Amino acid sequence: MTNMEGAELYGLFENYSYNEFIPGDDYASPCSDSSVAFNKILLVTIYSLVFISSTLGNFLVVLVISYMQQQKSSTDIYLLNLAIADLLFALTLPFSTVSINSDWIFGDYMCKIVSVMQEVNFYSGILLLACISVDRYLAIVHATHAVTQKRHLVGFVCIGVWLVAALLSLPILISRKAFRLHNIIVCYENIGARDNEVWRISIRFLRHLVGFFIPLVIMLFCYGFTINTLFQTRSGQKHKAMRVIFAVVLAFIVCWFPYNMTIFADTLMRVKIIRETCEVRGHINTALRVTQILAFLHCCINPILYAFIGQKFRNTFFRVLIQKGFIKKNFLSTYGMGSSYKSSSGNTSTTL
């Protein structure tokens, strides 16, 4: 590792908070890194585009949902919190982008803040996706309209999600530090001695379960029954919702499944279930970088999947543009959107 450049070493470490570095650990033994050939300009470009598109898209989601004149449905409230989570995560990307071409220059304090923001919003985003799936399951399969429309109940659920995400992120707040390694400053988890190995692996498996596998099972269960119910109806709007639900599940799996499987393989290698060799480590390091980019893209896709294809959202967005003077007042009637806005119910406002 002594021959690796600062950006390359940081790129190896900066995979959310899943990989922990222990000075002197055998995991850091010298190995030729086959994954360092990544083009830094390409990475900077991708991160910058993700930052711009995610910031703009999720800011518009927050703005439009806040401007909704009708009573916000339970799904709208979940979408608002999801957009805030993605927006806050996007705000941390410039720090990662800068660090691609240099070591960590922002100090120990910002290292903790940025790391905790990423971790909190990672957990809250995935847990909110699971909440949306449960909400749609109750609304469509069991038709519990009254339950899903109780805003104060949904608000408590969202507060609970943020609190759980904050609690799960406490290990990062404690262990994440900016420290010097081979004349390079890195922002990474400094767990300490080997005596903490059991605790370290336990935290890893907790992240795998709570951060991906349990929410995935919930989503597959809820959306599976939801799609089955929609297949049995003749409603065109519900069939449109079925297509949106399929896109939601597909995007979640495509973006997060490869990354989490790679992280899980890395965990199995650390607990010696998978034999660790330089070749295996190189393949995992390369896969981590590729799948991490794919996972980051999910925060850009969310505004499209959860909001922009929703009828009520589009009409509210155009009404905001009219209010701000960007388009004329007869735009909605010209394009036949006035009646659809009035007929949009709160429960199916986002077609989810």
TrEMBL record:
The chain crosses the membrane at residues 41-65, 77-100, 120-141, 153-174, 209-231, 243-259, 290-309. Pfam families: 7tm_1. Residues 57-306 form the G-protein coupled receptors family 1 profile domain. One of its GO terms (cellular component) is external side of plasma membrane. PROSITE patterns: G_PROTEIN_RECEP_F1_1, G_PROTEIN_RECEP_F1_2. Gene3D superfamilies: Rhodopsin 7-helix transmembrane proteins (1.20.1070.10). Keywords: Cell membrane, Chemotaxis, Disulfide bond, G-protein coupled receptor, Glycoprotein, Membrane, Phosphoprotein, Receptor, Transducer, Transmembrane, Transmembrane helix. One of its GO terms (biological process) is neutrophil chemotaxis. GO terms for molecular function: C-C chemokine binding; C-C chemokine receptor activity; C-X-C chemokine receptor activity. Belongs to the G-protein coupled receptor 1 family. Interacts with IL8. Interacts with GNAI2. Receptor for interleukin-8 which is a powerful neutrophil chemotactic factor. Binding of IL-8 to the receptor causes activation of neutrophils. This response is mediated via a G-protein that activates a phosphatidylinositol-calcium second messenger system. Binds to IL-8 with high affinity. Also binds with high affinity to CXCL3, GRO/MGSA and NAP-2. This is C-X-C chemokine receptor type 2. It comes from Acipenser oxyrinchus oxyrinchus. The lineage of its organism: Eukaryota, Metazoa, Chordata, Craniata, Vertebrata. The gene is CXCR1.
